[in-house]
Write a structure and sequence with these properties.
globular, alpha+beta, 3-stranded mixed β-sheet, Aminopeptidase
Length: about 90
């Protein structure tokens, strides 16, 4: 299949070695909707836990309903909301 995207995870910026972060995750458009994002996140969680993580956080754009649905189905909870008005 070759490369279909990438995932970048590591310790977050808090200095707490048990708090990890998904810095970036991309699944190429033509490969979305086939469970690859879910597989990547499950692998990310396993990797982070095996390196001492107790939490794994990430940012997701509010308009990205597909990604939000994926993360919620994996047990991620909303911890903050950022809002903006354009005029």
């Amino acid at each position: 299949m070759g490369n279909v995207g990438y995932l970048w995870i590591g310790c977050d910026s808090s200095g707490d070695p048990t708090s990890w972060w998904v810095w970036d995750i991309v699944i190429e458009a033509g490969h979305r909707g086939h469970g690859l994002g879910r597989q990547a996140m499950v692998l990310a969680e396993k990797y982070a836990r095996s390196h001492g993580a107790q939490t794994l956080g990430l940012n997701v754009f509010g308009f990205n309903r597909a990604a939000r649905g994926l993360y919620e189905s994996l047990g991620y909870e909303t911890t903050s909301v950022k809002m903006r008005k354009t005029f």
